[in-house]
């Protein structure tokens, strides 16, 4: 872009920068990003998100060149002059306030000015920034939520869209509901998967579906885009399932409306999308995959992503998004038009999508899991255990150092409901014992914290060795890996004459129990 090409654009300062004296600071950094001259300060202070470049040049000589320099430095964005038409209305539902731009930003740019676009974020309240993984002291929910809202409003303007969001909390905040402390940040930085990688509960999917129904009914879209729920993040899975539940529960309202699933980036990869398609096909819902060429707008998509600077560095996320686009472009082939879309030609950059055809029927959540192929043996054993659950008098759960208890208070209630007559014994490695902090007094008496690592676990094996017939769940990170069978047999040899089930997280076991008990009662 040259200064002469941007007269109608509207400059907007990115919300991460703070002006102190003549220096600009990025978020909580104590080192200035740039020092401005006195004239620069006047121009910078005159940027209000409404004046165009041409209007600023009338009062600030040479403003165009300076604004272009600041744009290249990532300090401001230049919003193109777009007047969206009154209709048709495209609604894009995203789990977090960056997922639509990451996953479908190129396709949205191609529709800018051609239709009315609204981006609806599920999660509003959040304390996540990239600082959280660096253990920095910046996790105030109110301040970070406000920052992320400003990012999303700006990114939506760059995409020619409007932004709105539900009143929903981010997964880490739902997992750890107490006030966060530096100790909580330390735990998150070491094991973020404990906070975000789990099965969505039926209750939260149902509640989210109700809230989406209310908001979508108000927005009255003509076309709907929803996430496919790739990866293992509970918010992506819950948003996908809640959106499909919403569509299934009011088929008359959504009859005839085009519904498209976008592939969650950068979580795509492997055959997860294909397995999700197969799970829907087994339920009678067809997902027709296509790709759309975004080569001409890819660099502009990256500029939109740079707005989300609280979440990632563009230098890190950009190459990952490019690799995803290259994979889709190389795999693409020409195809007939569908609502103005084309499959990409080989060598192009592209984004993938899946058209939903037929009645939307939601498969079991386990069948949509990233780990479903590795869970089949686990599911078979869990099914065999279900028939004996009321006769079960004792159940042991062993949380190894790499296992995940998750929300133990909630999962404990699921276990007690599934095995109403069982004495549930929990052995938990000291490194993950913090996940049991909400246990009540009666449960703490049945909880044993295992110290001294393998020596401590040897003592547990000795204690449990003669408890023949006790169903035992081992929580271990390699539970679903095909090459871990030898290690599984070794662990099972210390616990003879019993059902031994392996799971990565206790929520996996509890979710499968709930699904299978539900099937028996239908």
Write the layout of secondary structure elements.
Elements: E1 10-13, E2 17-20, E3 23-26, E4 34-35, H1 38-46, H2 53-59, H3 63-72, E5 76-79, E6 89-94, H4 99-111, E7 116-125, H5 130-133, H6 141-158, E8 161-169, H7 171-175, H8 182-190, H9 192-196, H10 202-219, E9 223-227, H11 234-249, H12 251-254, E10 259-262, H13 272-282, E11 286-293, H14 298-305, H15 314-331, E12 350-357, H16 372-386, E13 394-399, H17 408-418, E14 423-429, H18 441-444, E15 447-450, H19 453-464, E16 472-475, H20 485-493, E17 500-503, H21 506-521
Parallel strand pairs: 6-7, 6-9, 7-8, 9-10, 13-14, 13-16, 14-15, 16-17
Antiparallel strand pairs: 1-5, 2-3, 3-4, 10-12, 11-12
